[in-house]
Design a protein that fits this description.
Order of helices and strands: HHHHHHHHHHHHHHHHH
Largest sheet: none
Number of helices: 17
Length: 427
């Protein structure tokens, strides 16, 4: 009886965490949708495309700042959540390593933006996007995920997005203001993430003087494998619009961004759901593989049903959704959106498989798979873009998700069949 009572309380805590986490992610997902019509009407589809290209580029650069902390860091914090001394070592060494990487990334990218003609012609757009990197440096979400403090994550998300929303509707008022769009995103990140970083630092009495240089070096060495795979993962997410903007034009990039803006809501949600579940999956599988597998199956199975229903709705209301982004010629984008709904649907399968691959310690297999899929994606986009345009890019992304599912399922086949899932609670 007592055991069932404890299990019930844990179930309620998980539901509460999911609700709180979901609220914060809701702000993350709807904010770009709220500002898109205003930006397009003021700056035009070309300005919207330029800002989207720049934001995608800097979101890709974020992976160099994180350096795998969004996976390795979460896992380490989760496994050492009751050891404050070890948490201090992880926290401080991670941030010192991130600071070094931040300086290097800003230095090299600033040089590129001034010297490479493609970037220098619009250098202020890119220079004003640098605060995105600074904001990500302060971002403590990886640590909060490890200790499952989803309330603070939600506060960060809501605060940063409110700042961004107010700034966009207040200061973006003329066609040339597209150069400031990413600046306000970065300022929101710096303010919200910076406050949270300081709160964690002082609340836990972490001291930067207590870390050893060897810890920072070890962090850089041990994180390289996951960092390498995350580069390819980030390329898979942001390369399409970057390549369309670079090899195509800003108008085409803006049109693709409209379709992607809808799809990315669900892509981002799936990845955020991965973050919510990943820490607990790692923790439970380390203690009891059967228990961890049941938890994984229930949460990800429920999520797949939700994504399926959502994609059906997007398919049937594609015309109304595209018209929301007016005024501009839709160019049959509603038909492209109907094809694009298969991307989140397949991601709802491939991402949970990714969870298990990492939780079972198959980091090398994960890196190899990610590299193969991304290389295939990039080469295929280069081939299809001149002939099939946006439709070809969408088709390549769908095939890439199918390829990921096939490889991950092959890697996990033996492991899944060996584990006998016990009939017990998964919390």
């Amino acid at each position: 009886m007592l055991k069932r009572g404890i299990q019930f309380i844990r179930n309620q805590n998980q539901l509460k965490n999911l609700t709180i986490y979901g609220l914060g992610q809701f702000f993350n997902l709807v904010t770009p949708l709220l500002v898109a019509p205003h930006v397009i009407s003021v700056c035009g589809i070309e300005g919207y495309g330029k800002a989207a290209f720049s934001m995608a580029l800097f979101f890709f650069l974020i992976v160099f700042i994180d350096y795998g902390s969004d996976i390795n860091g979460v896992k380490e914090v989760s496994l050492n959540r009751d050891n404050n001394k070890e948490l201090q070592r992880i926290f401080i060494s991670t941030y010192l390593a991130k600071f070094i990487l931040l300086i290097l990334v800003i230095s090299f990218t600033s040089l590129f933006f001034y010297t490479i003609p493609f970037f220098s012609k619009d250098k202020f757009l890119y220079l004003f996007s640098i605060p995105i990197l600074i904001g990500q440096f302060f971002n403590p979400t990886w640590f909060l995920q490890g200790v499952e403090n989803f309330k603070q994550i939600t506060v960060i998300n809501i605060l940063s997005k409110i700042i961004y929303l107010i700034a966009i509707f207040t200061f973006i008022s003329s066609e040339g203001d597209y150069v400031f769009i990413n600046l306000w995103w970065g300022i929101g990140m710096i303010f919200a993430n910076g406050l949270s970083f300081l709160f964690i630092l002082f609340r836990n009495s972490f001291n930067f003087r207590n870390v050893k240089n060897e810890d920072v070096i070890f962090h850089l060495k041990s994180g390289f494998s996951i960092f390498s795979s995350q580069i390819f993962m980030s390329l898979q997410m942001y390369a399409p619009i970057i390549m369309i903007g670079f090899f195509g034009n800003d108008i085409l990039a803006g049109m693709y961004r409209v379709v992607d803006q809808v799809v990315v809501i669900f892509k981002t949600y799936i990845l955020l759901f991965f973050n919510f579940v990943f820490s607990r999956v790692c923790y439970l599988i380390a203690k009891n593989k059967g228990q961890g597998m049941r938890y994984w199956l229930v949460f990800n199975g429920s999520n797949f049903i939700f994504i399926t229903i959502s994609m059906i709705l997007v398919y049937y209301f594609s015309t109304e959704i595209i018209l929301y982004f007016k005024p501009f010629d839709t160019n049959n984008l509603e038909n492209i959106l109907q094809v694009a709904v298969f991307i989140p649907l397949l991601m709802a399968v491939s991402v949970p498989f990714k969870q298990l691959v990492l939780a079972f310690g198959y980091q090398k297999k994960y890196v190899q798979t990610t590299m193969v899929v991304v290389i295939f994606t990039l080469l295929s986009i280069l081939f299809v873009l001149p002939y099939f345009g946006i439709v070809g890019v969408i088709a390549v992304l769908i095939i890439a998700e199918l390829l990921s599912i096939f490889i991950f399922s092959f890697v996990l086949k033996k492991k899944i069949f060996i584990i006998q899932i016990k009939k017990q609670s998964y919390f």
